[in-house]
Structures are given as C-alpha cells and as structure tokens.
Amino acid sequence: MALLMASDVLFVRGVYRNMGVPDSLYVVVFSGLLEVLYFFKLLPFNIVMAQLCPPGCEGSLMALVASAVALSFIISGYLGIALVSIVGVTGDDFSRLPRGLLIQALCTMVPIYWASCIPDGKKLAEKKE
Length: 129
Fold this sequence. Notes:
Layout: H1 2-12, H2 15-18, H3 23-52, H4 58-87, H5 97-107, H6 111-114, H7 121-128
Helix pairs in contact: 1-5, 3-4, 4-5
Membrane topology: Multi-pass membrane protein
Main location: membrane
Subcellular location: Membrane
C-alpha cells in the first residue's frame, strides 16, 4: 500500500505521462486499487476483533469499528491539511508536494510497529482453554 502511495510521487513529477500513460487512467486505476487495498487491510483486523469480543457483541463491535473508521477519515483529512501546510505546499506552488506524498507513504508503515501486539491464533486458543 505504501508503494502505491509512493507511486503518486512519480505521478506528480509526470513520469507516467512521459511513459504515455494518461493522467486520467492512472488516477482511476491506482486510486481505485488503493481504496480496495485499504478495505482488504481492515478485514483481518475485523476478524481478530470479532474473535476476541464476548459472544453476542460482534454486531456492536463492528458498528464501533465502522464509526472509528469514519472518524479516522475525518481526522486524516485534517492531518493531511496540516502536513501540506508544514511541508509548504500552497495553491500556487506544488513543488514540495512529492515530499509530502513520501511522508504520507512512510506514515502508512507506522502500524507495522504495532502489529506485534495483535495476538496470534495459538495465544487465543490457549486463553480459551
């Protein structure tokens, strides 16, 4: 996912346009693919959370997760505006946009650090016994 986000830097610099790929094709294919990958990324976490919650609470937990995802989209929009301001992108000057896109791609890799906190199937089986 981070690689697809980093490919936006090549898009902004016009590399794909120079290769003969129209901008509209790139935007539709890669933006669509990135959205699909985002939701596939959430699926394993939803399954683990459903296994960890008490029986009968799965629906409430999924509603909570859906609300948290919606809130995260809102917050990420505001953080994106802050990042653009910090990097120095303005309405007239997009020269620093590739730097902001690289920072965004690197931030998507931060959750890898916390992946070790997710229990695996063996630990879940031991807790149930």
